[in-house]
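Batch job 17 of 40 flagged for manual review because the log was empty.
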Amino acid sequence: MYSRAGFFKYKINLRQSGCVFVLRSEIKYVHQDLQIAKGRAITFVPMKKLAYLIIVVIVLCGCEKTIHFQPNNTTPLLVVDASIESGQPPFIILSKSLDYFSKITPEILAASFVHNADVRISNGTVTHKLREYAYPNVAGYTLYYYTIDSTNLGTAVIGQFNTTYQLEIVAENVEYTASTTIPQLSKKIDSLWWKPAPDNPDTSLVVLMSRVTDPPGYGNYIRYFTKVNDSLFFPGIASVFDDQIVDGTTYDIQVEQGVNRNEDIDLENYSFFHRGDTVTVKFTNIDKATFDFWRTMEFSYQSIGNPFSSPTKVLGNVKGALGYFGGYAVQYKSLVIPK
């Protein structure tokens, strides 16, 4: 028994047991007519807190619900994969987008190419109409692309440094436009060398290193690719970089081996090269629109399968379509790694 005129000072420890809390309190009661011995155990259920707890349990147990939904079939969009490199003609692939939950087979991909489009490119002086070509690959399927018309080389456009290009596409009576610039080749690789892969028991693996000079002034964007022996060029798993940290400096940086995203990637060893390899680095200067496209695209790649990743909007530069039109100022640098 206790008096309401008393004063309680609590030192409380709570131990949870199911939905009931057992309160062990060290109580000091100050009143001239009543004293409660220090250390006495009092067991009770605080009704207000218990009511709150019951409500929380009911809400948590009742928040599970099976949701069934049927995704809408959206109208396919034009997908543009277009580029022009210094010293090379433009190369454009046109296709249609697929539904997010659709099956992807070689037959479906082959049927997604857009044919008979009117594709033109201009460097501000001349405009050239591109021609569609077919390329049968080793898997037995045919790839389709647009490039300069070999029967009309008088107006053919070849990539040049410090030049802006306009791309116009008319497909199924809809017009799409894009613009890109091949910048000056101002940021370059000075040298390449190799060293043994650190902390790796496989002594045949090596790390490729490079020394790069960045000119003063922000806005020097690059993308790189690597080629091993007679293989194709593949971009790095993170292939684009800006100069926010390295502006106006000469610095050393590892060159990771490019990856083929159509194959499984060994995340432990993908970046290494092997003794005996002949490695060629394709080092390109790009404009900001091309940098933004590949930066967001590669971040989207890396988020696949990660339930905690944030949605990423891929920043294309083709009005009315998905994809990009990019210009590349190219430098090649090779190194033979001895056995």
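Reviewer: the log was empty due to a logging misconfiguration, but the result itself is present. Residues 8-61 form one domain. Unflagging and moving on to job 18.
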